[in-house]
Amino acid sequence: MAEDTRLTAVVALAQGMAAAHGSREAWRAAATGACRALGGSFAALSVWERELGRLRVLVNVGDRAPDEEEFPDAEAYPVHQFPEITEFLHERWAGGGEPNAWVETAEGPAAGVRPGYVHQRVAALRRRGRGCCVVAPIVLNGRAWGELYVARPAGEPVFGRADADFATVLAAVVAAGIAQAERLEEARRLAFTDALTGLANRRAVDVRLDEAIERHKREGVVVSLVVCDLNGLKRVNDTLGHAVGDRLLERFGSVLSLCGAMLPGALAARLGGDEFCLLAVGPAADEVVKAADELCRRAAELELGEGVACGVASTEDPIGPVRSARRLFRLADAAQYRAKAERAAKPVVAGREGPDDPVVRLADAPSADREARGERRRFRGRRV
Questions:
Q1: Cα separation of 88 and 80, whole Å?
Q2: pTM of the entire predicted model
């Protein structure tokens, strides 16, 4: 391949990874770009999992065999099956340089591999009708991160030393792209995560709830929201200190997460201060109420605090049309407000007291009326 062609391939690979949204797209762009750059028919990107002693495949692209999924859930290979690269699993390489790629063929080792050794990878080439492959270790922050693997079918020209050298360059480009993708992923995680509890934060709830309400309007999917207020936090902070109060918030966050696991795909979040919520999309309203009831029970058993005030609103209950995220939030919040005012040990559910349900009345009353009755509360639904 001419130098200018290879330079174009490197640029295309880097641009493809830079344009990716999320880790999976970055992995696919890396494998696809390397496959094209090296004239391969198949490529895979894998990560070394040191704690498990295995190489786990992240993505397979190109002409995949029947047993090769694009994003496999459980395709992994023990390190001992690859003795020729175990040296790359050390913290750093002797001499301080980065490892070079090597070539293997279905007939056995080729350029850059110790002669006389035939291992699982060679057997896999034969089994899948491939004639050769080039393997390039990926190094991130001076440590082995994984490997880039590109193969050609049997009958095609075998990769040479120049191809292995070029694969080493491509692996360096992939490493830079992965580092950038991981930084962006971490930034996104932090942007949508509560630092104290590790739960989702208000921003994450806003985004997910907006999406859920759109699905409800399009498809009729059930959307339910549990809003809860942790009782007694101020007393704990004032008498025992904020460090103890933080521990109470963390413990309650764990309880919320545990109860949220009763609802497939539910989002557990801390809205701020002593306010938390569960967002469930799909499960029936009664299942959500059951989870909320368990939440109240477990919260009452916490060593500190005074239990939780819990309100539930679901599109499956008789609360009228829900056309905005803000309205569902207001309903759940009004239910929680009533639970707190009555010191209820169980969740209050919007819409379950008949046509004149006081929770629905409060949530839907004009803000001026709520304030005039002394019932106004700052609803935490996003202003739209």
A1: 13
A2: 0.58
